[in-house]
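Exercise 7b. C-alpha cells:
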C-alpha cells in the first residue's frame, strides 16, 4: 500500500500559509471554548445535583426529626397521662381503654387494650362515689335494666371467641361474664358493650354465661333433654354476682331472667335461677318508705 503524500508547508504560498494558520487558530479557539463551556456545564450539573440531593436529605432529616419529636412527645404525654391523670380517675381509664379497644385495627393491640379494660373493670372499688350507683357500666354510658343468665359449654374463652368471633362474625364473645365449674369468674365481652345474648333483648343488659358439665363444644348442642346442674361453687358465685349487679344498679331481683325465657332454646337451667331470685328477694333490705 503506497504511503500517503505528506503536506509540505514550504510549498504553500504566503497567502495559503496565513489561511492555514488562521484555520488552526480558530480550531484551537473552538476547542478551548467547547472544552471550557462543557466543563463549566458539567460542573454546574454535578454541583446542582449534589446541592439538590443535600437539600432533599436535609428536608428528609428535618421531617424525620419532627416526626421523631412528635412521637416522643406523644409517648411522653400518654405516659404522663396514664401515670398521673388516670391513676385515680377510673372513669377516664375505662373510657380510654374502651375507646382504644374499639378503634385499634391491629388485633394484637386490640387484645391488649381489652385485657387492660378488663383488668381495670375488675379492680374498680364498688364503694367509690363514681361507681357506687350504677357500677362499672355507668362509667361507660350504659344504663343497666336487666340481667340475663344462660347455659354455656364448659370451654375456654379462646373456644368461645373462635365460635362467636371467627365463626359467627360477632365483634366479641356474646356474654360479659362466665362462671366456670370451679366457681371462678371469667371476663369476656367488655361490660361497656351491649351483649349478644338474647336477640332483641340485649339493650341495657348484663349477660352471664354458666359452664355446664359434660357439654364441652360451644357450637354443638348437648344431647336432647340435657339439664345443666350448677356445682355448689357455681351457685355460690353466681348468686354473689347477681347480688352485686343488683346492688350496683339499684335493681330488683325480678329483672333477672334466663336466656331460654326469650329465645327458642331448651331450658337447661330449670328452676335454679328462680330459686336464686327468691333467695335474693328475701335477703334484699326493705327500702325506706
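Sequence design result:
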Amino acid at each position: 500500500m503506497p504511503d500517503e503524500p505528506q503536506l509540505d508547508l514550504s510549498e504553500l504560498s504566503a497567502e495559503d500559509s496565513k489561511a492555514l494558520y488562521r484555520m488552526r487558530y480558530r480550531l484551537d479557539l473552538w476547542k478551548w471554548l467547547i472544552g471550557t463551556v462543557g466543563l463549566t456545564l458539567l460542573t454546574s450539573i454535578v454541583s446542582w445535583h449534589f446541592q439538590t440531593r443535600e437539600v432533599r436529605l436535609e428536608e428528609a432529616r428535618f421531617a424525620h426529626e419532627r416526626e421523631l419529636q412528635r412521637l416522643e412527645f406523644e409517648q411522653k404525654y400518654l405516659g404522663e397521662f396514664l401515670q398521673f391523670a388516670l391513676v385515680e380517675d377510673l372513669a377516664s381509664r375505662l373510657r380510654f381503654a374502651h375507646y382504644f379497644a374499639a378503634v385499634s385495627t391491629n388485633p394484637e393491640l386490640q387484645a391488649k387494650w381489652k385485657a387492660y379494660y378488663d383488668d381495670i373493670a375488675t379492680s374498680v372499688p364498688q364503694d367509690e362515689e363514681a361507681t357506687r350507683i350504677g357500677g362499672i357500666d355507668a362509667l361507660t354510658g350504659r344504663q343497666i335494666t336487666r340481667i340475663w343468665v344462660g347455659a354455656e359449654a364448659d370451654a375456654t374463652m379462646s373456644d368461645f371467641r373462635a365460635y362467636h368471633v371467627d365463626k359467627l362474625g360477632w365483634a366479641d364473645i356474646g356474654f360479659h361474664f362466665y362462671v366456670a365449674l370451679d366457681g371462678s369468674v371469667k371476663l369476656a365481652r367488655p361490660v361497656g358493650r351491649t351483649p349478644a345474648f338474647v336477640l332483641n333483648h340485649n339493650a341495657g343488659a348484663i349477660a352471664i354465661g354458666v359452664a355446664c358439665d359434660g357439654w364441652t363444644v360451644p357450637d354443638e348442642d348437648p344431647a336432647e333433654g340435657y339439664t345443666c346442674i350448677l356445682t355448689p361453687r357455681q351457685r355460690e358465685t353466681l348468686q354473689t354476682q347477681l347480688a352485686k349487679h343488683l346492688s350496683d344498679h339499684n335493681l330488683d331481683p325480678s329483672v333477672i331472667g334466663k336466656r331460654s325465657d326469650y329465645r327458642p332454646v331448651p331450658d337447661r337451667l330449670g328452676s335454679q335461677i328462680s330459686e336464686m331470685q327468691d333467695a335474693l328477694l328475701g335477703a334484699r333490705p326493705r327500702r325506706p318508705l
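Instructor comment: The chain has three domains: 19-60, 86-123, 138-283. The two ends are 137 Å apart (CA to CA).
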